[in-house]
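SEQUENCE-TO-STRUCTURE ENTRY
===========================
What this section holds: a protein sequence and its matching fold, both as plain text.
Question of interest: how does this chain fold, as expressed in C-alpha cells?
***
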Amino acid sequence: MKKGFDNKKYIKIQSEKIKERFKLFDKLYLEIGGKLFDDYHASRVLPGFEPDAKIKMFQELKDDLEIIFCINANDIERNKTRAEFGITYDLEVMRLIDNLKNLGFTINSVIITLYKNQGGVDNFIKKLERHGIKTYIHKPTKGYPSDIDTIVSDEGYGANPYIETTKKLILVNAPGPCSGKLATCLSQLYHEHKKGINSGYAKFETFPVWDLPLKHPVNMAYEAATADLKDVNMIDSFHLEKYNIKAVNYNRDLTVFPILKTILSKITNKDIYHSPTDMGVNTISKCIIDEEIIKEAAKKEIVRRYYQELTNYKSGLVDIDIPNNIKVLMNQLDINSNILETIKPAFEKHKKENKPVVALKLPNNEIITGKESNLLSAPSALIINAIKTLSKIPDNINLLSPNILEPILKLRKENTPLQLQEVMIALSICSVTNPTIENALTYLKDLKNCEAHSSYIITNGDKKSLNNLGIRLTCEPNFHSDNLFYN
C-alpha cells in the first residue's frame, strides 16, 4: 500500500498540540470525537494512518490522563449497534474499557446520559458496578438549550453528580455520536469552577479537517460517513469573522457554538474560544505527505459508503435519501463506482455464472473471484482461491479434506454452503498434518486492506469473518435469496 500519511509524525505533533492546550488550564476535559480505537475510516482515507494511532499517541500522555465514557441511555434501550463490529453500544463501551485497562490506562467511570428510568439501562449499570466500574447518571439538563441562566445553575449542570477526577487531562469518550460528551464536560466545568479549579474544555476530532478545503475529498468522505446524521461541512463563519481565515467545520458544531460560547463564558467568566475551530486540536493536514494518494483514497471511501448505505436501505435500516445524498457527493467529485476495481469483475462473473460472487483485488493488483457452490459460500470459495493464488498452489489441488468436512457437515442443521468461519476452522485442522495448507494459511495476513466486492448482501457470519481478515468489503444491494430469515 502506498502511503500518503506520516503516522509517526502525527503521533509526535498531535501529542505536542494537546500538551500545549492543557498547559492553559489546571485541568482539561478533552472531548474525543470519532473513534479512539479502531479508526478504520481514517486509515482508509489517509493511507499510512494506523487505526490505533490515536491511542498510541495518548499512551505518551498516559501518566497525566484518565478516561470517562459517556453513553446515551436511549442508545442502550434501543440496542444501537456499532456497524463495524456488529455489537451494541453498551457492549462496545465494555470492549473499549477492557482494551484500555489492558494498556494500562486509568478508567474513571461511565456516565449514563439522558437517563429517564429506562429498564434495560439499570441492568447495564448493575453489570458495570459489579465489575468495579463507577457509574453516574445524568438526566436531561433543565433549561437546555435556550435558558442559559438555568443551564448554568444548580438546577441545570449543578443537578448532575460531580465526578471526582485526579489527573490533569480527562478524555471524554463514547461509543458513537450524540452520547452526551459535551454536556458531561460542561457539567464538570461548572462544578469545578465553583470549587475554584481552573478547568477547561477542548475537542479532539479527526474529521472534518479544518485546514483542508471545504470540498477536499477527505472532508467530503466525512460527509459520506455521517450521511445518516445529516452532517454537512461548512465554512466556520465565526473563525472567518474573527481571524479572516477560512476553516472547515460541520453544521452541528456551528449551530451549537453560540450557545456553547455563552455557557463557557458564564462558567469561566472569560472568553477562551471565538469559533468552533478554536476549540479543536487537529493536526491531520500537517502529516499528509502525498496529496494525490490521499485524494484517491478518500474518493474510494465515498463509493464504499455509498454501497454501504444502499445495502442499509435495502435492509430497511435507512431511507433512500441517505445513499442519494452520498451519490450527490460522488457527482460533485465526478467519480463513479468503477473507481473500485472489484465492482465490474464481480458484476461480470455474476452475470456469467448466475450465482453469488465475490471479487477480490490481491496485493499484486490481480483480481480473483469466488462463486457459491453446493459446498462453499462465495466468500469461502474466494478466500480459498486467494490463498491458493498467493501460495502458488495449483487450482486442481483440493485444500479441504473430506475426512474433516464430514463431521462438520453432519453437525449442521441447515443444508446450506459452508460459511467462511467453518472453512477457516477446517483449514486450520487440516494444516496440522498438511504443510502445504499450513504454508497457504500464512498468506491470510496479506489480504489485509484488500478491496472486495460482492454481488449480494453478505450475511453477518461471512461479513464478520471478512472483516476479521481486514478485507474492505462492499456489496451490491441484492439479497442472497427470497428467504426473509436469512436476509
